[in-house]
Write a structure and sequence with these properties.
alpha/beta; Pectate Lyase C-like; 7 helices; 27 strands; Pectin_lyase_fold/virulence
């Protein structure tokens, strides 16, 4: 028996202890972000034993297809490249998109998981379309619609070119990106629009080193998403009212919300709200974020629904900049302490240890 116990102990000691990267908080010092990311979001080769089984299988033997407007690639359009991926796809397909503007309305349906859209960092391609809510309905007006799981985009510009709503034209809202699949990551992407720029619809999502611009509700929906080191650029709205988020949580048991960490809020329009109570129980937290003077001193809006004041979760933690002063905030703002902020400043917020991988190198 003693010999057996000794053998068992030797086996256990030989097995490396795996510490989930979900448990390591995002550092308070922004200069440490890249090291933190490299240490906690390892490449596939170092993570295959801990990833979702479907994802681990999909990453073996990844395929690259190329889109070039001049015909020198496998396809001339992104749409044709997506159509070439079989329904029920089980392997990672990297769509390398050459420089240029692709005037297409692109949809990646739920039967095509494991798709990556990739552009060269120094020659970012643009996916562009001008669809509006009047034409397609709000959520279906997006220039890029992603319904499938395990999607990745790196170094892509996504824009909706419809003119900004003026408060008079019916159905003028125009989405640039709708992300409705689970476990999606965006690296170094620029997402441009006015009202309703991103429909962060549902699922776990990660945005890093991105640029997002808009006027009203330019990040909205029921996703559970972490935005890291991303610039939020507020553009002037023709009718004056500007607000960054319209998170759509409604039930107390719903597990969704937005967490912004080490982001930067820029623009020239004064009086911008961090978020509004579009739905009954929105959950939005800003941490370590530099807020420009454009932020309205009250911070948040219940959008004329005072009955929602006790149900919203609008949190702030150790933000900086002229717009981060909390003295004038509305009474329902939650000024978080270290323990309260902890769930929102790590990859655990999006269960990243099971699916998040660094951007591809193509």
């Amino acid at each position: 028996m003693i010999a057996f116990q000794a053998t068992l102990m030797a086996i256990l000691l030989a097995v490396p202890t795996v510490i989930s990267d979900d448990t390591v908080p995002i550092p308070a010092v922004k200069a440490q972000l890249n090291n933190w990311f490299q240490n906690n979001v390892k490449p596939y080769a170092a993570r295959k034993g801990t990833l979702d089984a479907q994802l681990a299988a999909a990453e073996t033997g990844a395929k690259v297809i190329r889109v070039r407007k001049d015909g020198s690639g496998n396809f001339k359009t992104v749409t044709d490249a997506i159509k070439s991926i079989p329904s029920g796809n089980t392997k990672r397909v990297i769509v390398f998109i050459g420089f240029g503007v692709y005037n297409e309305k692109v949809t990646i349906d739920r039967t095509r998981p494991f798709v990556t859209l990739y552009g060269a960092p120094g020659a970012m391609p643009t996916l562009s379309y001008g669809g509006t809510a009047k034409q397609y309905g709000t959520v279906n007006s997006a220039s890029l619609i992603v319904e499938s799981d395990y999607f990745t985009a790196a170094n892509i510009i996504i824009q909706n070119t419809a003119p900004p709503p003026d408060g008079k034209r019916e159905g003028a809202q125009a989405v640039a990106l709708r992300i409705s699949g689970d476990k999606a990551a965006f690296y170094g992407c620029k997402i441009k629009g006015f009202q309703d720029t991103i429909c962060d619809d549902r699922g776990h999502h990660f945005f890093k080193d991105c640029y997002i611009e808009g006027t009203v509700d330019f990040i909205f929906g029921s996703g559970k998403s972490l935005y890291l080191n991303t610039e939020l650029r507020v553009l002037p709205a023709p009718f004056g009212f500007t607000v960054i988020t319209a998170q759509a949580r409604e039930g107390a048991s719903e597990d969704n919300g937005y967490s912004f960490v080490h982001c930067t809020i820029t623009g020239t329009i004064k009086g911008t709200y961090l978020g509004r109570a579009w739905k009954t129980r929105p959950k939005v937290v800003f941490s370590y974020t530099n807020m420009g003077s454009i932020i309205n001193p009250v911070g948040w809006s219940d959008y004329f629904h005072p009955e929602r004041d006790d149900m919203v979760f609008f949190g702030e933690y150790k933000n900086t900049g002229a717009g981060a002063a909390t003295a004038g905030r509305v009474k329902y703002t939650k000024l978080l302490n270290d323990a309260q902020a902890k769930p929102y400043i790590g990859l655990g917020y999006i269960l990243g240890s099971k699916w998040l991988l660094p951007p591809p190198k193509v």
